[in-house]
Specification:
The chain is mainly alpha-helical and about 130 residues long. It has 5 helices and 2 strands; from the N terminus they run αββαααα. The longest helix is centred in the C-terminal third of the chain and has 19 residues.
């Protein structure tokens, strides 16, 4: 399946992808106790926020300060990077947010992998035909 998000170019993300990252971060902030992961929309297609974070894992662009703050305030341990906080890359922020999404999904679903259960049910349904 195609990602349908714009690709990075030599480690750099187009501004539309950087803006989508910000939207995904805001969606994470507003995520209460729903079982499902929040979504964002890009060019009429719906994407779970984890897909946006995964797409940005190799992005070497520097994160704006407001996003750095939004990411670091969610950490349980103080941020200790090799440089000052204002040089955090989208790659680092995406990795942190990816972990936070997985932790939230585990907590919300009491350790159940809802995607795996749904895939298994779909496989069983197809084999019953």
């Amino acid at each position: 399946m195609s990602n349908a998000l714009p690709p990075l170019h030599e480690g750099h993300a187009p501004i539309t992808l950087q803006q989508l990252f910000r939207e995904a971060l805001y969606a994470f902030e507003e995520w209460d106790s729903e079982v499902t992961e929040p979504i964002v929309t890009f060019e009429g297609r719906i994407h779970p926020i984890s897909v946006v974070f995964e797409t940005m894992r190799e992005c070497t662009d520097i994160v704006p300060n407001n996003i750095v703050s939004a990411v670091t305030e969610r950490l349980t341990k103080p941020w200790e990077g090799e440089g000052p906080l204002d040089t955090m890359t989208f790659s680092t922020a995406a990795r942190v947010m990816g972990v936070l999404v997985r932790k939230r999904l585990l907590a919300v679903n009491n350790g159940l992998n809802v995607a795996a259960i749904a895939a298994e049910a779909q496989t069983t349904e197809k084999s019953d035909r």
